[in-house]
Amino acid sequence: MYTMKKFNQVWLAAGLAASMALCGTAQAQMRIEISGVGSNQIPVAVAGFADEGIAPQQISAIIKADLERSGAFKLIDAGVITSMNNIDYAGWKAKGADALVIGTVAKATSGDYEVRYKLLDTVKQTELSQLGLSRAPQYTRLTAHTIADDIFLKLTGIRGAFSTRISYVKEYDKRHYELLVADADGEEEQMALRSNEPIISPSWSPDGTKVAYVSFEQKKPVVYIQNLITRARTVVANEKGSNSSPAWSPAGNKLAVSLSKDGHTQIYTVNADGSNLRRVSNSNGIDSEAQFSPDGSSIYFMSDRSGGPQIYRMGVDGSDPKRITFSGNYNISPRISADGKTLAYISRRDGNFQLYTLDLATGQEQRLSDSTDDQYPSFAPNGRYIMYATQAGGRKSLAVVSVDGRVKQRLTTQAGNIKEPTWGPFMQ
């Protein structure tokens, strides 16, 4: 049986403590529009959990929303099942469900909500998984996301990312900016920083407890790290000229940054406490937007050394730079998937800025967006989805697309433009 004890301890100590330590709770929540479905959808019936009405939020509804957003499942109406015993497997299979999700909710004397869940295989008439979770009322959504993650893993073989977090910037006007952290579905939005000057380029630390970003509050771009638990803030790079594009190393002990201290912008590495600044790239052009490879041995970056912006890769010490993108004459914002196999980037073609991916082994390129002004791609930690900023109808919003391009989501709010997204890591 899969136990969640260790997960709970780490998440509550890090991720949830972070959200409680932020400056405040933003009121406007995101609205999600979903289009397209994945190939070979798995038919799943998610029953209403027995007595779930006593909890602050309906757990089965959150699970359904998570599974629907993924595009990997075909949801089948199951009503409410009050007992987790004596399940009519054949009857559910006849209704078209290959899997059935059932559960119960009870309130403990401590005030926590105890949630039990089972995932059943109606074809083999066996139990695939079960969990027992006990959490405080404010973590009801996390409980539901955890169950959805377990369902996704057991039925697809891929780790779910529903319980991860995202960060982004919301711009209300030219004098009001907020750095926000939210659940992967845009709910439970928390404010990490408010400023009268622009905030750009947020980047999650590998352990999910800190966010690096660029702020213009000193009337120039400066790189900071914000500890989401302690709220302590560290200046990482405040050199002469521009300081931009922070990106964490996989070990979380250093960052790559883009600095113009020596003239034209080049890539440097710096320890997370701001010490040991070292220049890495060395060209006569502009080198920027560095991203470490998952194993930390190399850095992907944008450079115009060939006459126009293209994506390159070099050793972490700056050695052996090689061009990676060759299609199109304008490719920027490289992001690498967690398995190191897929590169996402923004390419300008026919005047449109759109999201593309490149299979690094085969060289096969794929366009994933059909809008005209896309920016700042960010992979989900399981590598199955990419979030990016886009613009339509004069409003800036976030979008999510599956790596096969079949499933698309648009995340919008009633107030403000949302941009500069970054998808947080799994909480180990």
UniProtKB/TrEMBL annotation:
Residues 1-28 form the signal peptide. SUPFAM superfamilies: TolB, N-terminal domain, Tricorn protease N-terminal domain. It is found in: Periplasm. GO terms for cellular component: periplasmic space. Part of the Tol-Pal system, which plays a role in outer membrane invagination during cell division and is important for maintaining outer membrane integrity. The Tol-Pal system is composed of five core proteins: the inner membrane proteins TolA, TolQ and TolR, the periplasmic protein TolB and the outer membrane protein Pal. They form a network linking the inner and outer membranes and the peptidoglycan layer. Belongs to the TolB family. PANTHER family: PROTEIN TOLB (PTHR36842:SF1), PROTEIN TOLB HOMOLOG (PTHR36842). This is Tol-Pal system protein TolB. The lineage of its organism: Bacteria, Pseudomonadati, Pseudomonadota, Betaproteobacteria, Burkholderiales. The gene is tolB.
